[in-house]
Specification:
Length: 359
């Protein structure tokens, strides 16, 4: 009874916190949490984050999850009622994939998604830490052989590359037993793919490009120097954001490794791999860094609500989405998993509903 009461109190607090600011109010936080790079965490801190993520997979599916995009557009399977609560986060990202990528929602929605995930780890699984990020510029020079992939500790390690003899499943680390439901039942897959851009997609113009070159430190610095929000998001989303997803491939890219069995390719089920949360925390950090580099950047925003991926010309004209245009009062969708908020609520990480900074 005490555990149930504690859970209900925590849930009430969570809902009141995330739902308190439906319009972009400013309320400076007193003591912001500090998000650190994964390798800066102590072993116990790593263990706690991994434990909490795995914990969510032991909660049942939330029937409140209500897809809002027609499946003829989202191209995803129906909700699996026997899936887990962790799978619900995956499904939310799948359902909204055409609304939250290459539109104005990309950066604010993923910032909000990551925050909501962190809060869920706290109120459902007793997590007391802060969302870590993965600075992949450290690993970019020799990505495949980086020590990042060498931590096989079953409690505090993220695990390495998938085993091609075992359906590309990751055999070690703390997520080796994380059971996933979408798009079909499996364990986390990873498949190093150095040149992933040889696919018919208007965003990618150089099929021979080695993905890691887009997130070397000099390339990231060049992106941070871009003065215009639209061009900044374009360079970040189509560059290092997409490249990291695709170089790790498999679950993080939402695709199937060659010769993998029991695998159905599908769009944007990237949160299947918990690296998603570390990766997007790094994307959020780069936006945070860009916002703080110049005062004019702090609330700079521009984007539409519709992907413009019909042609190279349409994408170059509207890389952050075509009309109808969004603004700071535009409300971001959550498919019933948690209260919705406006873009303006998450523009500043130390006001509104947010209270964190990056180390």
């Amino acid at each position: 009874m005490f555990v149930l009461w504690t859970f209900l109190v925590s849930l009430t607090i969570f809902v009141s916190v995330v739902g308190a600011f439906s319009t972009h109010q400013k309320k400076a936080c007193i003591k912001p949490a500090i998000r650190k790079e994964w390798r800066a965490l102590r072993a116990q801190e790593k263990m706690e984050w991994i434990r909490a993520v795995n914990c969510l997979s032991h909660f049942p599916h939330d029937p409140a999850l209500t897809p809002r995009v027609n499946r003829s557009v989202s191209l995803i399977p129906p909700v699996n009622a026997s899936s887990s609560y962790y799978d619900d986060f995956v499904y939310l990202h799948m359902d909204l994939n055409t609304k939250i990528h290459f539109t104005g929602e990309f950066l604010p929605w993923h910032r909000w998604f990551l925050y909501a995930f962190e809060e869920t780890l706290k109120y459902r699984c007793g997590y007391h830490g802060v969302s870590p990020y993965w600075n992949w510029t450290i690993d970019a020079p020799n990505f495949f052989e980086s020590s990042f992939w060498k931590d096989s500790n079953p409690e505090s390690g993220l695990g390495g590359w998938g085993d091609p003899k075992a359906d590309y499943s990751v055999p070690d680390g703390g997520f080796r037993k994380l059971h996933l439901s979408y798009p079909s039942p499996h364990i986390v897959r990873r498949n190093f793919t150095l040149r992933p851009f040889d696919i018919p997609f208007v965003v990618f113009t150089d099929p021979s490009l080695e993905a890691n070159t887009t997130f070397l430190a000099p390339a990231i610095e060049k992106i941070l120097e871009i003065p215009d929000y639209k061009e900044f998001q374009k360079a970040l989303e189509a560059g290092p954001h997409g490249a990291v997803h695709l170089i790790v491939s498999a679950d993080l890219a939402g695709n199937c490794p060659q010769n993998a069995s029991n695998c159905i390719p599908g769009p944007k089920w990237a949160p299947n791999d918990p690296l998603f949360w570390l990766h997007h925390a790094m994307i959020d950090k780069l936006w945070y860094d860009w916002q703080h580099r110049n005062q004019a950047n702090a609330e700079s925003f521009f984007g539409g609500s519709v992907e413009a991926l019909q042609s190279v010309e349409s994408y170059n004209k509207y890389p952050t989405g075509a009309p109808p245009f969004l603004n700071l009062s535009s409300v971001m969708p959550a498919d019933g998993l948690f209260p919705e908020v406006a873009i303006g609520d998450v523009m500043d990480t130390t006001s509104g509903i947010l209270c964190y900074v990056y180390e």
